[in-house]
Amino acid sequence: MKHPINLQFKTTLQRLLLLCVTLFFASASYAHEQVKVVVVPMAGDDLRTVYEIGETGPAGGIVYHVTDGGLHGLEASHEDQGASAEWGCLGTDVNFVENLATDDAVDPNSGAHNTLLIRIACGGATAAAVAGSYEGPNGKTTNWYLPNKEELDLLYNQRGVVGGFDSNSYWSSSESSSNVAWYQVFVDSGQGVGIKDFADGVRAVRAF
Q1: Dihedral sign from CA coordinates of 109, 112, 116, 121
Q2: What tens digit of pLDDT does each residue of 141-174 get?
Q3: Among positive and negative, which fits the CA dihedral 67, 68, 69, 70?
Q4: Three-state DSSP class for 147?
Q5: Are β-strands 169-175 and 180-185 bridged in parallel, bridged antiparallel, or unpaired?
Q6: Greatest CA separation found in the chain?
Q7: Dihedral sign for Cα atoms in the order 182, 141, 109, 64
Q8: In this structure, are residues 78 and 137 in contact, taking their beta carbons and an 8 Å threshold?
């Protein structure tokens, strides 16, 4: 016959072991639940800023054209950067800046590309240099440029939204020949070509 004290001890030990096992699995289950609570999935593109025409752009300008549902587009300075700047390079056909033959031709080069090429080729206080030197409303942003003729026409179409236009006509960065370049008349919807040493307005824009 087993001693009653030994039987009681064994029963107590079994209960302790059972309690430990129960606590272990309960703790593991709790930890698992905690992990599921604290893990946060990546938000991805849901956090990207979407812009609308008329809003303040990422560099402080006024958004006047949007693409990709507002994720990208163009913003313009609030004011003119110059009212009397020459296009420059009179008598010189600037390499790789497209020569446009008609009003409805499409310039494959962006204004940013054109601006850089004109500044390299022409130097001085040209319209491209004036626009490219602009650093935004806060004086801290870069990559502003002289718009090409298509970008300038988009700006004309939103002139009431952007505002602050003081000149009658503005230079684009699109060339036509060694002596003339494209400009936009802001008192009507006309685009034309003008002699490169003629002084026209400058309004800097920026892509985002």
Answers
A1: positive
A2: 999 999 999 999 999 999 999 999 998 999 999 9
A3: negative
A4: coil
A5: antiparallel
A6: 122
A7: negative
A8: yes
